[in-house]
Amino acid sequence: MDAGVLDWAATDDPIDVLLGEHRTILQVLDEVERESRRLEATGVLRESFWQDLLRFCDEFDAGLHHQKEEHLLFPALEASGLSPTTGPTAVLRDEHLRSRFWRQRIEQALQQRDRARLLAAAGSFLDLNRAHVLKENQILFPLARRLLQPGDLARLHREFRLLAADQRLGCWMRHPYEQAAGA
Ligand SMILES: [Fe+2]
């Protein structure tokens, strides 16, 4: 799993950036489904796969993608008229929390090496996130294109780039020796 797959540099449209990140997330979810089937069929728990998934959740999903949405896109939409408590951004924020809940459940099951619980948590994580990505792609992003002005979109794109740079810096600070060794 490559948590560094970002195609923001190829576009100046922040919604395209998020759509690209969703494609990465959906690819990871497909891998989770394949690994779950393998675990169910063979009983072999490949710890490294699940540790990679947890790292992806922390560094890419929660650490970058959710931050772009929750701290930048959603507030911009709320400033353009969506209700922060009853509108679609409120529902989507709640789904981000639920996704983090299932990520915790996956980690707990992994620590206990409980295959049945791991499969159940992974299944809930998959179902939630696939539906969530679909909802954002089909409802929120078209709404954002209608509500946001060209100046809002340009500002969002600049803020996304700054956030991505901060995230890469934070990643390097956490893993300086790994980064240096891989350079
Ligand atoms: Fe998203």
Ligands: fe (ii) ion
What value does the average pLDDT take? 90
CATH architectural name: Up-down Bundle
Please state the overall shape, judged from the principal axes of the Cα atoms.
elongated
Summarize the helix and strand pattern as letters.
Answer: HHHHHH
Number of separate helices: 6
Report the radius of gyration as a whole number of Å.
17 Å
Q: Termini distance?
A: 18 Å
Q: What is the fourth-level CATH superfamily?
A: nmb1532 protein domain like
Main sheet overview: none
CATH class group: Mainly Alpha
Give the strand tally.
0
State the domain count. Answer: 1
CATH fold assignment: Four Helix Bundle (Hemerythrin (Met), subunit A)
Q: Topology of this structure?
A:
Blueprint: H1 14-42, H2 47-79, H3 88-112, H4 115-147, H5 150-174, H6 176-182
Helix pairs in contact: 1-2, 1-4, 2-3, 2-5, 3-4
Fe (ii) ion is lined by residues 18, 22, 65, 69, 136.
Descriptive tags:
183 residues; mainly alpha; Four Helix Bundle (Hemerythrin (Met), subunit A); disordered N terminus; binds fe (ii) ion
Description:
With 183 residues, the chain is mainly alpha-helical. It has one domain: Four Helix Bundle (Hemerythrin (Met), subunit A) (Up-down Bundle). It is 83% helix and 0% strand. The protein is elongated. It starts with 13 loop residues before the first helix and ends with a helix. The site of fe (ii) ion has 5 residues, from helix 1 and helix 2.
